[in-house]
Amino acid sequence: MRLKSLALGAVLGCLCLSAAVAQEEPQVVRQNLMKGIGQSMGALGAIAKGEKPYDAAVVQTSLETISTNAKAFPDQFPEGSETGMESDAAPAIWENMADFEAKAEKLATEADTLLAAVPADQAGVGAALKTLGGTCGDCHQTYRLKR
């Protein structure tokens, strides 16, 4: 009985360790960073469309998330992480890393600029969303695989 318990414990430990290691893979980290940006853009979009009322705290948090994640994003593309984990990263990233990093920096800079003067109403959020969305789209066109 004790041997079965030890074996079960070892199996469960290995499963937990596998999940923890998978969470640290750069593909997973960058997917989570992008999900955070996407959720933030969605929150801003809901305000801009009038689906949700203007909320300065939501706008501020969304812009902070976009800025923080965009700054961390380029570091999650080391050599050898081109494939795996259902990555949508295009090979062009590794072929032109400087441009990719510049596009991420541009998004972070735009978010920081908006944070310096947080949009004060629905129209302001809509204008901010256009600016941020254009930058996101520019990067996605070049560096995201089309599925």
From TrEMBL:
The keyword Iron applies. Keywords: Electron transport, Heme, Iron, Metal-binding, Signal, Transport. The keyword Transmembrane helix does not apply. It holds the Pfam family Cytochrom_C_2. Heme c binds at C136, C139, H140. Residues 1-22 form the signal peptide. GO terms for cellular component: periplasmic space. One of its GO terms (molecular function) is heme binding. Binds 1 heme group per subunit. It comes from the Bacteria. GO terms for biological process: electron transport chain. This is Cytochrome C556.
